[in-house]
Specification:
Elements: E1 2-3, E2 15-22, E3 31-38, H1 42-52, E4 55-61, E5 115-124, E6 134-140, E7 155-159, E8 173-176, E9 190-196, E10 199-201, E11 207-209, H2 211-218, E12 224-231, E13 244-250, H3 254-265, H4 267-273, E14 281-287, H5 296-305, E15 310-316, H6 330-336, H7 338-346, E16 350-356, H8 360-373, H9 379-388, E17 392-396
Parallel strand pairs: 1-4, 13-14, 13-16, 14-15, 16-17
Antiparallel strand pairs: 2-3, 2-4, 5-6, 5-12, 6-9, 7-8, 7-12, 10-11
Helix pairs in contact: 3-4, 6-8
Bound molecules: flavin-adenine dinucleotide.
């Protein structure tokens, strides 16, 4: 349990935020609860938590929490995003005006008129012993007229061959682009994806493989594929070279993060884009096993080359344990680094990106709630403000 030393010498009227991790509910890895109480209520609260099987994670005096973090609600003070800005910094960038993104290409190719791109490359991204299949697939766009241009953070659509159960052509599926706008070859004429083969058992116990993901994972170089798009403006990077970027990814959610990180740190890419990133980038990556980590060597290389600008934190659920002895999920890492994350969020230049399976959202939300509460912040009120300021960006599927 983390108990702030500042708790000593506080009067009974001071308020404290108590964060506790509850007993496991269903299959969820952890449940966090927060309570704001006065010191003379500690003993009753601790008794109640103990009886329910909850463990206390931290006790922090509200007075020690973010300055100006009040909206008049004493028990859950909420920082005004603008007010949290360190006074030295210009406050104007705390709530950046809606980015126009007018110049970002969208829907150059629509499902009725897709571009036929040839597969250049298709290789496995996972190692022996991994769970499932994930492929890196590159398409040639050099024949596209009009040009199929895209930027980091966008997606493209793929229309698989064949027909569905009703005999109708298959519908388009979206995939996050995994290459920068210059492509993996820096020649501005390719696009790459990171595709996981969907695999599950139906109610009858039959093994089912997803239509489009299987089509892509099995596709041979030289084959032509119907491509649409690009689409999406939710996951675009800010233009500011001094922005800080926190990335939370699980599985193929790494695709947009790979584009950001290459844009920031890959030497040929930096030359091609002229964008001299000077901020701090922090990637939290969740995977079930080490063999399932995607692009791991690249990220380790950037971490070594840019130790002041890039940090890489992994949560490998089946191999690492969280502080409670359970599986280590990305939300456990978020909670471990709560102080640093929220100190970064106080800086209006910090933007957070979350991408992966939809199931990751509740866990991250719980961790952010608990982490925020330890700083006296109500995450449910802060999150929409960050979103409005284009600083909280989520793409889950
Ligand atoms: C914006 C966006 C970005 C995306 N980016 C990526 C990416 O980068 N990489 C990637 O691999 N995917 C990505 N996806 C997911 C992708 O679009 C497809 O949904 C995925 O590949 C599955 O398509 P499929 O044709 O293989 O599956 P389908 O044959 O269409 O099967 C999917 C259907 O199977 C059923 N199903 C799925 N799981 C189960 C289960 N466990 N139990 C029972 N039924 C189930 C559901 O009905 C589901 O609709 C993204 C999606 C979006 C919206």
């Amino acid at each position: 349990m983390r108990v702030s030393l500042a708790a000593a010498g506080q009067s009974d009227s001071c308020l404290f935020t108590v964060v506790a991790s509850g007993p496991q509910a269903g299959s969820r890895p952890s449940v966090f609860q927060t309570h704001t109480v006065a010191m003379n209520q500690f003993s009753a609260l601790f008794k109640q938590l103990g009886a329910s099987g909850a463990k206390i994670v931290s006790v922090t005096p509200v007075s020690e929490q973010i300055p100006a973090a009040t909206n008049g609600n004493e028990s859950h003070p909420v920082p005004d995003v603008a007010k949290v800005a360190p006074t030295k910094k210009k406050v104007t960038s705390t709530a950046p005006k809606a980015k126009p993104h007018g110049d970002v290409p969208v829907n150059t190719y629509k499902p009725k008129n897709p571009y036929l791109g040839k597969v250049k490359d298709n290789y496995s991204l996972v190692k022996d012993g991994a769970i499932g299949r994930v492929q890196h697939i590159t398409f040639d766009l050099s024949e596209a007229d009009p040009k199929l241009q895209y930027v980091e953070g966008q997606s493209i659509g793929i229309i698989p061959e064949g027909t569905d159960a009703k005999g109708k052509p298959h519908k388009m599926r979206l995939y996050s682009i995994a290459s920068t706008r210059h492509g993996d070859n820096y020649e501005d004429d390719t696009v790459s994806l990171c595709v996981r083969q969907l695999e599950y058992k139906n109610d009858e116990g039959e093994q089912i493989f997803g239509v489009c993901s299987t089509y892509l994972c099995d596709i041979e170089p030289g084959s032509s594929v119907k491509i649409t798009g690009p689409v999406g403006k939710e996951m675009l990077l800010p233009d500011d070279e001094e922005a800080n970027i926190i990335m939370l990814a699980t599985g193929t959610g790494i695709a947009p993060m790979r584009t950001y990180i290459r844009r920031m740190f890959e030497s040929r890419e930096r030359k091609a884009n002229g964008w001299n990133f000077k901020g701090k980038a922090w990637l939290f990556m969740g995977a079930p096993k080490t063999a399932n980590l995607l692009y791991d060597e690249d990220f380790l290389h950037y971490e070594k080359e840019f130790p002041d600008n890039f940090r890489y934190t992994k949560a490998i659920s089946r191999e690492q344990q969280n502080s409670k002895g359970g599986r280590m999920y990305i939300q456990d890492r978020v909670l471990e680094h709560a102080d640093e994350i929220f100190t970064m969020i106080e800086d209006p230049k910090t933007h957070i990106y979350l991408c992966g399976l939809r199931g990751m959202e509740p866990g991250i939300d719980e961790a952010m709630t608990a982490a925020a509460a330890a700083k006296g912040i109500d995450w449910s009120e802060l999150r929409p403000k960050l979103k409005k300021a284009h600083r909280w960006n989520v793409e889950t599927y």
